[in-house]
Amino acid sequence: MYSEQLEKLIEMALMDGELTEKEKQILFKKAEGMGVDLDEFEMVMDARLFEKQESMKAATQTTKAAPKSDKFGDVKKCPACGAMAESFKTKCPDCSHEFSNVGANVSIEKLFEMLNACENDRKEQSTSILGVLGSQMAQATGGGDKVTQKKKSIISGFPVPNTKDDILEFLSTAIPNAKQKGNFLTKQNPENKSHNDLAPTWKSKCEQIIMKAKFSMKEDKGTLEEIMAYGKELGI
């Protein structure tokens, strides 16, 4: 709909399901410079933000039985001074308190719980004739087995963590999964294939987080350096 550069900025700004005032200013300034009608642009942005939030809700429906908390790094107010805190900010802009989540590894653990549940579904399907036939048909048509496709959907749709601890914990665990195993001759071997089928999706998720951090965490150079070091491991 818009230029590739503007669409990329929109994608980065919306990937965590929130749009901060700083992000709005950057987007509207870029859109205005490209001659985009700002009233129309605002309407489009509102619609895309709503769609992103709805898709993120759908991706996490399986976790709705868990008690509500901020363990996905959802910091709403500074615990020190009570000031409103924007997502992806590692320090309070008012009092400089550093946001830290005592349950930092819960985010990635919840993701792996969802992926393990999918793997249990695979085991159940392997004992069902219909399940085996369905999996074979999906692979024959080039779509991969249903469990793998479901895992890809869960990973790509999982909420982007937005506190320092959650981001670093997520990347440290996700990076090994984003790297291909084996070489040209062995990457499709049984011991490597299931890992490699998901590696591009993991890499894409890591890239989302790293790009969002570059866009929104410029004030915390120390944390950003740690995040960019992870990016170098994947060539991002």
Silhouette: globular
The main pleated sheet reads as:
none
Q: Beta fraction of the residues?
A: under 5%
Query: N-to-C terminal Cα separation, in Å?
Result: 26 Å
Count of helix runs = 9
Poorly predicted runs: 62-75, 138-143
Helical percentage:
55-70%
Task: Please provide a written account of the structure.
This protein is mostly helical. The chain has helices at residues 4-14, 21-33, 38-59, 106-126, 129-140, 146-157, 164-178, 190-216, 221-233. The longest helix has 27 residues, at 190-216.
SSE map:
Elements: H1 4-14, H2 21-33, H3 38-59, H4 106-126, H5 129-140, H6 146-157, H7 164-178, H8 190-216, H9 221-233
Helix pairs in contact: 1-2, 4-5, 4-6, 6-8, 7-8, 7-9, 8-9
What are the main properties of this structure?
236 residues, mainly alpha
Give a quick rundown of the structure.
With 236 residues, this protein is mainly α. Helices cover 62% and strands 0% of the residues.
